[in-house]
Amino acid sequence: xxxxxxxxxxxxxxxxxxxxxxxxxxxxxxxxxxxxxxxxxxxxxxxxxxxxxxxxxxxxxxxxxxxxxxxxxxxxxxxxxxxxxxxxxxxxxxxxxxxxxxxxxxxxxxxxxxxxxxxxxxxxxxxxxxxxxxxxxxxxxxxxxxxxxxx
Length: 151
Prior knowledge:
Blueprint: H1 15-25, H2 55-70, H3 86-94, H4 99-116, H5 123-128, H6 132-149
Helix pairs in contact: 2-3, 2-4, 2-6, 3-4, 4-6
């Protein structure tokens, strides 16, 4: 209700014009807080799934990185200069003979058998009988398999 108690000489104010004038003076005013809205329904297909590296893949990747950093060796678990054979690198990467260590070793040996024949009984016997390039090929394939298996 608009009640005037006394007469003034002011012209009536056009509220829309008044709002536009202030918008020109301050084009980006701080918005008033909106009432909380209901949570939006997000379709499950919009976000890509987050894939975590499994413990076997991590152990294999860390072991190969260890070989890349310290060197690869044959005929000994640990070379006096710090290089290691494949099983030595697995032990260094895993930190202990845990489940990831055992599963990574089994996957590595399985991949060695796939690439170099079923005759290999142990990782050291396979490691000592092949070149560095052949050993690396098996490591890389085992890492890919662990990745695809999500382990």
